[in-house]
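Protocol step 4 of 5: obtain the predicted structure for the target chain.
Materials: sequence only (see below). No template structures provided, no constraints applied. The aim of this step is simply to have a reference model before the mutagenesis design in step 5. Sequence pasted as it appears in the construct record:
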Amino acid sequence: MTVALDPTKSLRPGIRFQEVVAANAVNWSLKLAQPLLATAILIGLWELGVSLTGVSSVILPAPSLVAETSFKFFPLMIEQASPTFWAAVWGILVSAVLGIFLGTLVSYSKTVMDTIYPTVVFFQLIPKVALAPVFVLWFGKEIEATILFSVFIAFFPVLVATISGLNATNKTYERMGYSFMASRIQVFLRIKFPFALPFIFSGLRLGVTFGIIGVILGEFVSAERGLGYLIMFAAENFETALLLSTILLLLGVGILIFAMLLVIEALVMSVYKVQ
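Step 4 output (structure tokens):
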């Protein structure tokens, strides 16, 4: 019996729900098995290589030492992960609002396009690391400076994606909306914005990555807490195992935020019935 694996498609008669769930579970298990196996082999080779070569743990600690360090300092790492997580979340949220708002203005107004967009592009060409000390001078060493630095890096992909999505809307649909006496706001909310949603969420996926990078860069320069601060502390004290443990936790924070975005995307797409 052939089972449809795509849960978004309607089930054919005679196929039970349990069979579809089981088929999807097997499919996802196979997809996860390959990367997990590759990771296990890599960790095994890493452990074996460190053991055979006797390399110093300052240069390259064994995975077992990294795991031991993670367990030992787990409460401290979780405590430091909290400000990093919330700074990244707020940075991405502000980036989303700012990017969508400016993108909408730019797509609807040629004056705004000629005035604002070139300036934004110009500032994006400046190396972000070079501006980090400026943010410290302007906003101090509090978490607000880290959030603002994250926004400065993350909002540009959302802006570009919003402009691209709104400008790519099928003009036939717009003319049809206006022919039914719809206002510009109604056309935007019911035609242009839903059409642009896939573009916007593509920009937001990039924004998540850039936002987390911005938070870490900000914590490198200005923060006195957070995973970025802990990474710098471990590096300065040659605690390589703690350094790698913190990087792994940072990876987990990034995966968590990205998963939250995917859930929000699925909910929004279902509300607007966008495929």
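Step 4 remarks: The radius of gyration is 24 Å. DSSP finds ten helices and no strands in the chain.
Proceed to step 5.
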